[in-house]
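Need a sequence for this fold. Nothing fancy.
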């Protein structure tokens, strides 16, 4: 773990002086993304940086319509824009009408240091129990304001009765997923059971980052097949949701790639704002991923008729090891 901690710290190190485009892209790759697949490709051109989907990193069992993939691209695009403007390359994000390409086009103007820039290397999905403390109203208002985006809707649940209903949805949807052999095979492919595997691949769900022990790969695979079951996972998720101060649900105006990208941008700003405020977040997307639970989720948060896109629980808790990332050269294309 000492080697892994040094590796994770190098990924999140402050940019060199003077900064360069590789640092901007490195900060972009620290964005939230589904299963830590990092499904993006970057291209640096004359006065622009483009982000395109890497379809080789799709997760068809959990994300058959690539919804999470394009939300992930939106998260990376937001990090990119914040880092670039803060490091001296002001610009604007442009989304292709069909949502298949994002371009950050440089514009003339002064450097604008975003308060969210410092949160980029600190943000993580903290898959642990929190301490149930309430988030102050002023901080809730800051989270809501930061995520305010045209075309994106946000609902924040803080009443215990609503959180309990959300817990029931998460547990029910999790049980459905874990009974799906295709889902389980795909999940297993993305788990990294020890620091060496995580550093070698540079991607995936590092088990230690979820509070689990590091295991040799063979033992980790055996333990996954033997002990990873719906009951234990449902109990874990129930405790985690119970321990949270609240839950945030995002939805776009429409079910298309462009709006999924917009949701990702808003979600990333929410997570970065939370990191600046000392608030932890973690995804609990099971009721989104199992389609039959979406209407009930939408009704719970006052979004009837819309498809919920992302669910985050938030609260105060520990800092866990950070997730791995691939090197910049692995995500660059000509």
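Here you go.
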């Amino acid at each position: 773990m000492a080697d892994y901690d040094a590796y994770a710290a190098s990924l999140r190190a402050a940019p060199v002086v003077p900064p360069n485009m590789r640092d901007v892209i490195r900060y972009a790759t620290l964005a939230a993304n589904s299963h830590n697949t990092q499904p993006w490709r970057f291209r640096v051109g004359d006065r622009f940086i483009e982000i395109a989907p890497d379809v080789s990193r799709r997760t068809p069992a959990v994300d058959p319509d690539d919804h999470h993939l394009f939300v992930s691209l939106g998260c990376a695009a937001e990090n990119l824009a914040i880092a670039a403007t803060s490091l001296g390359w002001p610009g604007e994000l442009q989304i292709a009408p069909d949502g298949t390409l994002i371009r950050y086009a440089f514009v003339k103007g002064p450097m604008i240091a975003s308060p969210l820039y410092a949160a980029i290397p600190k943000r993580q999905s903290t898959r642990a129990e929190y301490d149930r403390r309430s988030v102050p109203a002023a901080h809730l208002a800051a989270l809501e304001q930061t995520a305010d985006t045209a075309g994106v809707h946000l609902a924040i649940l803080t009443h215990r009765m609503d959180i309990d209903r959300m817990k029931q949805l998460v547990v029910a949807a999790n049980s459905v997923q874990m009974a799906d052999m295709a889902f389980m095979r795909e999940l297993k492919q993305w788990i990294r059971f020890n620091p060496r595997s995580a550093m070698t691949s540079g991607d995936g769900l590092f088990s230690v980052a979820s509070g689990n022990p590091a295991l040799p790969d063979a033992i980790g695979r055996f333990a996954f097949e033997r002990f990873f079951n719906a009951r234990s996972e449902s109990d874990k998720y129930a405790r985690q949701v119970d321990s949270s101060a609240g839950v945030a649900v995002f939805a776009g105006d429409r079910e298309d790639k462009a709006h999924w990208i917009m949701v990702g941008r808003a979600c990333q700003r929410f997570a970065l704002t939370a990191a600046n405020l000392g608030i932890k977040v973690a995804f609990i997307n099971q009721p989104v991923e199992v389609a039959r639970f979406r209407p009930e989720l939408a009704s719970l948060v006052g979004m009837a008729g819309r498809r919920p896109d992302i669910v985050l629980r938030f609260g105060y808790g520990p800092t866990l090891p950070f997730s791995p990332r691939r090197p910049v050269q692995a995500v660059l294309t000509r």
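For context: DSSP finds 13 helices and ten strands in the chain.
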